[in-house]
Amino acid sequence: MESPESVSCPLALRTVRLSIYDRRASARAASRVALQGWFMTITLDSLRRFAVARSLFKPTTLGRALDRMGFVQADPIRAPARAQDLTLRHRVKDYRAGDLERLYAKLDVEEDFFLVYGVVTRSLQALMHPRSDADVPAEGPRPWSAERKKRAQSVLDFIRERGSVHPREVDDHFAHGKIRNYWGGTSNASTQLLAAMHYRGMLRVMRREGGVRIYAAHQHGPEPADAAERLGRIHALVDAAVRIYAPLPAACLADLVRRLRFAVPQWRSELPSALKRAKQRLSQARVDGIEWFWPGGESPARAEVSDAVRLLTPFDPVVWDRDRLELLWNWVYRFEAYTPAHKRKLGYYALPMLWRDRVIGWANLAVADGKLASEFGYIKSRMPRDRAFRLALEAEVDRIRTFMAIES
């Protein structure tokens, strides 16, 4: 999903001193921070390394990676694999395309909306529910009509009787007909109703069959007991989002918090004040006139990155926020899957290419006749000449072949 706002910021790599704000203070008095007898400084270079190192952690098990991330964005396009798989292959040891879907029922996760749609840990999902009487984000925050509530209850009773259902079973039984979808085309009304019921928490996705959601009835826990618990949940959701996408410039942090209206439409009016409180408790620094924020207790100055090439899905946390990407790497990336072919500059599903801590280009990958086809482009019009890069790029392509179970 493209970020709806653009951030215009100077990109010169001037070194500035770290500004730290007391979590419990509302005053904005900054001070230099001593670290082992030296004063720590933060530059755009150190923020770049920090962004890469904290997100691309050492590969671990699938369960531990999901626990650490909390949320992984999902997208149905396969180029050459789905976004969730392309994201997890960098963070899970011996990960293979489709592992998340194959192992989903055994994992402590659920499909749901967070900032966008994806897979969330159950502990994170519990903070968001029960949701208000609202439709899925693409339909807007309108309440359900009495007729739709009645129809949803009938469908819920039908699913409870059967235990789990394929959307086709619901459509065959109720014959809800067609309806205009979010994108201007037509869809089965049953499919949209099931998605809306899932968003409200009446259903959960048990598994997928051929990429199609198989639903079961579900009921979430109670609402927060009081205002203090409600605020605690909101704070925890903000912190979870920041952990995934930090470090964040102020404008991107504001956009991130606004996107939580998809997670908690019932509390959307409280998000502006949640943003103010987050700015008071998060660690922050002012670099080139822009405030950057990240979780407390983490140090941008200590980040280290490996000598590796990474081909990232456009939805990877490292490059997900297009404004942050431009600030950190001075490159305007646009996702062009829905751009007419003759207007594309990078390609249908261009994967940003990360070399060490620098985004230096992009790749377009496809599987044809059982072989991996690759095309590369570079921001500076040519590939780096050093042998280390060529070896690292070859190693990354080999990793993708293994991930896709493709012969070299």
Strand and helix map with partners:
Elements: E1 16-17, E2 34-35, E3 38-39, E4 41-42, H1 44-55, H2 62-69, E5 71-73, H3 83-88, H4 99-103, E6 109-113, E7 117-121, H5 122-128, H6 146-162, H7 167-174, E8 178-180, E9 186-188, H8 189-200, E10 203-209, E11 212-217, H9 227-245, E12 248-249, H10 250-259, H11 271-281, E13 283-287, E14 290-294, E15 309-311, H12 322-329, E16 351-355, E17 358-368, E18 371-378, H13 387-404
Antiparallel strand pairs: 1-4, 2-3, 5-7, 6-7, 8-9, 10-11, 12-14, 13-14, 15-16, 16-17, 17-18
Helix pairs in contact: 7-8, 9-11, 10-11
**In order across it, which strands form the biggest sheet?**
15-16-17-18
Largest sheet: number of strands, sense, barrel closure: 4 strands, antiparallel
Structural class by sheet pairing and helices: alpha+beta
**Strand portion:** 15-25%
Q: Mean pLDDT across all residues, rounded?
A: 88
Please mark out the parts with pLDDT under 50 across 5 or more consecutive residues, or reply none: 1-38
Head-to-tail CA distance between termini:
33 Å
Query: Helix segment count?
Result: 13
The rounded Rg comes to 22 Å
Kindly state the number of beta strands: 18
| Fraction of residues in H or I helices | 25-40%
Q: Looking at the structure, what is the overall shape?
A: globular
Question: Can you put this structure into words, describing what you see?
Answer:
The chain is of the alpha+beta class and 408 residues long. Among the domains are: 134-198, no CATH class; 309-404, no CATH class. It is 35% helix and 19% strand. The protein has 13 helices and 18 strands. It has helices spanning 44-55, 62-69, 83-88, 99-103, 122-128, 146-162, 167-174, 189-200, 227-245, 250-259, 271-281, 322-329, 387-404, and strands spanning 16-17, 34-35, 38-39, 41-42, 71-73, 109-113, 117-121, 178-180, 186-188, 203-209, 212-217, 248-249, 283-287, 290-294, 309-311, 351-355, 358-368, 371-378. Strands 15-16-17-18 form a 4-stranded antiparallel beta sheet. It has a 3-stranded antiparallel beta sheet with strand order 5-7-6. Strand 13 (283-287) and strand 14 (290-294) form a beta hairpin. The two termini are 33 Å apart. Mean pLDDT is 88; it is low at 1-38.
